[in-house]
Amino acid sequence: MSHSYKTIGLMSGTSMDGVDVSFSEYSQSGDNKWSYNLHAAKTYAYPENLAKALRDVTKFSAQEINIFNKHLGIFYGHLINQFIDEISVDKSDIDAIASHGHTVFHQPENGFTLQIGCGTTIAAITQLNVINDFRSKDVVF
After folding, report:
1. For the residues of 75-136, what is the DSSP string, one character each?
2. What is the C-alpha R_g of the chain?
3. What is the pLDDT of residues 67-107, one digit of tens each?
4. Rounded to whole angstroms, how far apart are CA atoms 56 and 60?
């Protein structure tokens, strides 16, 4: 039995060079081997106000981080919709968005990590399933 998944991937790194967005298809063959096809990818620059906030976010209060998490999710959601329009893909063909988020704190030695860019907000704006918060389980112990 074979499976195929079409996903939008979203990655933002501490290099601050922009947001990478991709559209890929992952397929599993009957012999459990996986393959992939990268259909489209693009890097979008951050608007200066968001870039500045991302550079300063480690100095924010807990409340400010939570507010910014929501604002970044709004930005990501609209950016994904723009990308989908630009590459002319029907949303009904997309199984999920995989959003890494932007790393604010990563301290595996202390059992925590924080990536922001609210997945629930992205889901509400795009009307697609979102998978996020990938790293927390890796650092729990």
Report:
1. HHHHHHHHHHHHHT--GGG--EEEEEEEEEEEEGGGTEEEEES-HHHHHHHHTS-EEE--SG
2. 16
3. 999 999 999 999 999 999 999 999 999 999 999 989 898 89
4. 7
